[in-house]
Amino acid sequence: MIYETPRFLPAGDRYILIEFGNEMNLLLNFTAQGLASAVAAAGINGIIETAPCFASLLVHYEPSLIRRSDVERELIALIGAMGSFDKIELSSRLFYLPALYLDPWTKECVEIYCRTITPKTPDPELLVEINGLEDVNHLVRLHSSSEYWVASLGFWPGLPFLMPLDPRARLTAPKYNPPRTNTPQGAIGLGGASHSIYPVATPGGYQIFGRTPVPIWDQSVSHPDFEGEMCLFRPGDRIRFVPITRDEYDEAEARVKENRYRYTVVGYQKFSVEAYGQWTAKVGDAL
Amino acid sequence: MDSQGGRRIMIEVLKPGFETSIQDYPGRLGFWNQGFPPSGPMDSWSFRMANLLVGNAPGCAALECQYLGPSLRFTDDAVIAVTGADMQPQLNGQAVPLWRSVAVTAGQTISLSSARSGVRSYIAVAGGIDTPPVLGSRATFNKAGVGGMGGHAIKVGQMLPVAAGAGCPGLEVPETARPRFSTDRQWEIEVCAGPNDDWIDEAGHERFLNSFWRLSAKSDRTGFRLEGPEWTFTEKAHNKSRDHGSLPSNIIDHGYPLGAINLAGQTPIILVNDGPSMGGFINPYTVPSISFWKLGQAKPGDNLKFRLVTVEAAQDMAAQLMALCVPATLVTI
After folding, report:
1. How would you write B140-155 as a 3-class SS string?
2. Which of A226, B42, B242, B327 has the fewest C-beta atoms under 10 angstroms from its C-beta?
3. CATH class of B186-323
4. Nearest Cα residue in chain A from B290
5. Is the pTM here over 0.90, yes or no?
6. Does domain A2-85 have CATH number 1.10.287.990?
7. Over the stretch A5-22, which tens digit does the pLDDT of each residue have?
């Protein structure tokens, strides 16, 4: 649900977490991103930075410059002044990202976890079971059938938090208990209803079932497709995973190593919230 | 040559120690929304004092040593100070007092060994370390290769540049203005309730606040893993939309405050300076900034006991420490 009034949750001496709802949908993400932009534009003395995600916004403030009650007052005013998101259209790049599903590296990573930490159902099989799918091939078909919305970046530099735009591709999963201490770079995963790609080898809590051979993080800021940034993606982008074979994976990896890899990016499209809403209503009726 | 035309002091790394890194304070702010943590010193109290001793601004770039310190040779005369954990620093074999500014002459080597009390030592140099800032900060995020020198902890053979400075030897941080490290391997850590305290039931809160939590060896600058009793949850954690994920500690991914006691399954992890900015686990409590120095000086195997304080009390304590970290606190010996 979307809360009638946002919930302000204290988070230590320097942060406030604002929750707008307790589900994942595009409207909540627009609200979080919209408030983040409004806070940045307002330039309030003492507000250091924000971190928007699917349905919430974390605000970092400096208590020696602004009181918590004043931060809340400023935020309530900004929320009140935010317009409706129903009619907006925004530029949205579409990335086609090669993905080797059911790859040997994520499989090995899960096997090591089972051996050294705690036994569990292998991740792809767990997703099949929990989501009532036919088999792992069904998982691959479904996962690669939708565009994914970049709702935010976080966890690690450049890591995108994604949600499928096609409601028919919605999947859910539990998160690891306890989390992995390692995940292969480029692993593709799902936790709750949120999807992601691991930019480098890091700890992780999502179920993993595929891997992309191409980097989504470039600290040298040298690749032309990163447009001068360290992170390939920005909120409002869309990603489509293109299933590839092992040979294609190796070929793409070799191109990356030789600095010959170019990303397939489509840059002319606009994302219309109204048209998307009409389409999902139609798809929802058919479900 | 620096801008004044003088010779630029360099520090040559003879031995790097264990992940000794360049840090500044408060670190790399403003990029939490892209997943960049602030980094910066774990014990910012000792760090700020080291800088003040050598005449720098409290947040100036300096070295953080962990567990085992480095050996460093100075190409020119300099003024330095070592604070924090006692790694028995020596200057060409002579003991260097902690919490005091000392003169170093060209060619001398400072060597730190392993930490006797605490974990992290800070070495500040008058002028401050002058590596190129990345996203507005010189702080090192070692695991991601951001900031510092070449993105990582210092390496043998590197030459660390130092900016021009005017420090004077013979200043000291009085004992009353130093952090007091635990001698019995027990630490009382302040903690504020929230943001997700309503996901934990009464019994769970009681167990959290009344138990000792052992700091796991699987801890580093990204997170401190704690070992202790089980957590139990309220109805809210069990009966929820599938978007959260099915386990009680699972929540729709959200921004993490630094200091969050992040409940990953049943394993609480305190998210510290190089920690993740977002994720899908609940944070029932948050360690306020005033207690970070204690985390920075606690050893794996130490026992942490948490003390509930209000947000306002935590803010008052941080303000008191900020007021202490000023040049007027120092005394001349």
Report:
1. CEHHHCECCECCECCC
2. B327
3. mainly beta
4. A13
5. yes
6. no
7. 999 999 999 999 999 999
